[in-house]
Write a structure and sequence with these properties.
By secondary structure, the protein is α/β, with parallel strands linked by helices. It has a 7-stranded parallel β-sheet. A 5-stranded mixed β-sheet has the order 2-4-7-6-5, sandwiched between helices. β17 (520-524), α22 (534-542) and β18 form a beta-alpha-beta unit. Bound molecules: 2'-deoxyguanosine-5'-triphosphate, calcium ion (2 copies) and zinc ion.
Length: 600
């Protein structure tokens, strides 16, 4: 069981308990634990296996949950979960997948209206029954109608990249223990760093395909063997995820990597380019096309066993055979990358190592799980040069948002911490005085300019009134962009992958306003958000807008997601120079000063 599996199980338990009307504390205990586990890098299995460490040392895990984790690690299931699942009909889970429908609302729909499927729900909305329920209303009903389609879309059941990555890492570690494995890599959408992953593709270089495939079949996490051929097999693994394994020989490993990394669109374009070179590419290598007497060439005639491959050991060889440099997997979507490569214009994509600071994070002052000092200690260990503490402003009452006085107190603490950091001369870390202000429903921000003026860094985000019409939402965001103290717009579209669509916003107008004023836009690296998405981030770059990649960490584990934000930026074709927090602290200050709105 991976951390993601266990987190998913705890979330499900919390949902069912809440559905059954269990007390808030018990429900919250499972949710908090799921959150903590979901954002951990180190596997629970490793901690459990280490005699010197205790699961109860993890924040939010007491003796009861630690015992449950042990059972899950040992058996892959939990009596409590099975009991709870049996007590609740399956359609309840289906209904809870509709964005905006939590356990409590689903319970009302089921008990008051007898809703037992998404179709029932749709009909109940159409006949206006849903809006009459306590706590629903006509707006909620309209939103449910809009979101049913979202819940029905099978694309929304794909795993997040970070969830798939946890499985891939576990799988690579396990398969590497097979002595017949010479080289191994993940491929497909996982390797391209897509936001979500449909199935996992693994490629192995080996002279003994059968042994490698058997090794996968006897993986304790393999639940079903779906298909088993001479060199390929498909199984179901953790969380019902399909895993496709291909085994190839060393001389074809690069060609197979290229083929199974895809995307399909990229492959189609690369293959048609090969034809112009009188070549053909398949998953075994690059071959010369045979010419027929009538001048037609054909790839049917190519038999890899008889034809000598011109390239295929490495991806670089294969691309070189058709006159191209190696193309980073994140760009292989058939959106013009082959032409860029041909012209020597491939971007030099940003890397994790380019990142110098993190400019969006929370502490226990609002909804974070770690104190300011814990956050700064962790940031220091991670080698960051600066961080901005950006707790919520007062509008976010749920998170005990900061009013002006509490914020000024926190900034006083930051001044003191910076002074003591400056004394320790081995620490290059500087803490910036920041805030995540909220764009109010009626317009304006939730803290006055006199306060914001004193901040080093201001993130402005929209958390409330997300179902307002396009014009109103766009106007609120542009107003925030035009505020001269706002540095960056946080998670600009508000979408949560698989959970909640973006709010209706004119993103072009937002990008235009950001470019005009010199306001930055965020790629929020949280794997549920990845907001801006790759298309918007690319458009922002084209318009001259600088991007900030931020973790929005709510705990020290939260820093880990930076790599997800980097992948998203790479998919958008962004380079280090496009990213604000690749700058040194002085560079960052310069950038802030040079913005048109700072000079106005
Ligand atoms: P996914 O699994 O839906 O997240 O997306 P992918 O891209 O991993 O797709 P998948 O697993 O069906 O196939 C892996 C790669 O294999 C794909 O990106 C390109 C290659 N491939 C699969 N089927 C075809 C095909 O029919 N034609 C070509 N040219 N390539 C294919
Ligand atoms: Ca795949
Ligand atoms: Ca596949
Ligand atoms: Zn935040």
């Amino acid at each position: 069981m991976t951390n993601a599996d266990i987190a998913a199980i705890f979330t499900q338990i919390a949902d069912i308990l809440e559905y059954q009307g269990e007390g808030i504390f018990r429900v919250r205990a499972y949710r908090t634990a799921a959150h903590a586990i979901g954002s951990m890098v180190e596997s629970l299995a490793d901690i459990q296996a280490d005699v010197n460490r205790f699961l109860t040392d993890i924040e939010g895990i007491g003796t009861d949950l630690a015992a449950k984790i042990k059972v899950l690690l040992a058996t892959g299931t939990l009596p409590l979960l099975e009991e709870l699942q049996a007590a609740v009909p399956a359609y309840v889970f289906e209904l809870m997948r509709v964005p905006g429908l939590g356990p409590k609302k689903v319970k009302l729909l089921v008990e008051e209206l007898g809703v037992a499927s998404l179709d029932d729900l749709e009909r109940a909305c159409q006949t206006g029954k849903v809006q009459l329920l306590k706590g629903f209303g006509s707006k909620t009903q309209a939103k449910i109608v809009a979101n049913i389609a979202f819940a029905k879309n099978p694309a929304h059941s794909r795993l997040l990249w970070s969830e798939a990555d946890a499985i891939v890492q576990q799988l690579l570690t396990y398969l590497s223990t097979c002595s017949e494995v010479l080289q191994i890599s993940g491929a497909g959408s996982w390797r391209r760093g897509q936001e979500t992953v449909g199935d996992i593709d693994i490629l192995v270089d080996s002279n003994n395909a059968q042994t490698v495939m058997n090794h996968l079949h006897s993986w304790p996490e393999t639940t079903t063997v779906l298909l088993s051929g001479d060199t390929k097999t498909s199984v179901r693994g953790p969380r019902g995820m399909q895993i496709d394994l291909r085994v190839v020989k060393t001389e074809s490993f690069g060609a197979a990597m290229q083929y199974f990394t895809g995307s399909k669109e990229h492959n189609v374009r690369l293959r048609s380019r090969a034809r112009e070179y009188g070549l053909t590419i398949n998953e075994y290598g690059v071959y010369r096309l045979t010419n027929h007497e009538d001048g037609e060439s054909s790839e049917v005639a190519i038999d890899p066993s008889k034809n000598c491959s011109l390239a295929g050991r490495t991806e670089a060889d294969l691309y070189a055979a058709v006159g191209l440099p190696w193309i980073p997997p994140e760009l292989r979507e058939g959106r013009g990358e082959i032409l860029l490569a041909h012209n020597g214009q491939l971007p030099h994509l940003v890397e994790l190592a380019d990142i110098c600071g993190d400019l969006h994070m929370h502490t226990t002052a609002t909804d974070g799980e770690n104190t300011l000092e814990e956050m700064l200690r962790c940031a220091r260990q991670r080698g960051l040069n600066y961080i901005a503490i950006t707790d919520h402003g007062q509008r976010v009452t749920m998170a005990h948002g900061l009013n002006a006085q509490r914020l000024l107190d926190q900034w006083g603490e930051i001044d003191r911490l910076n002074e003591s950091l400056a004394v320790e001369n081995d620490s290059p870390l500087v803490i910036l005085k920041g805030i995540e202000v909220d764009m109010l429903e009626k317009g304006g921000l939730d803290l006055p300019d006199e306060v914001l003026e004193q901040a080093d860094w201001v993130v402005a985000s929209l958390h409330y009134g997300q179902s307002q019409p396009r014009q109103q939402i766009t106007a609120r965001i542009i107003e925030a962009i035009e505020n001269r103290f706002v540095s960056v717009i946080g998670h600009p579209t508000g979408r949560l992958i698989n959970r909640r669509p973006a709010y209706d916003v004119d993103i072009e107008a937002v990008i235009e306003a950001a470019a005009r004023t010199g306001t930055f836009l965020e790629i929020n690296a949280n794997p549920w958000r990845l907001d801006l998405n790759e298309y918007h981030a690319f458009a922002a770059k084209q318009a001259g807008v600088k991007i900030v990649i931020s973790t929005d960490a709510h705990s020290t584990h939260g820093f880990e997601v930076m790599r997800c934000g980097i992948l998203q930026a790479r998919r958008a074709g962004l380079e280090a120079k496009d990213i604000v927090n690749t700058r040194s602290l002085n560079g960052l200050r310069q950038l802030l000063q040079d913005r048109p709105k700072a000079k106005a």
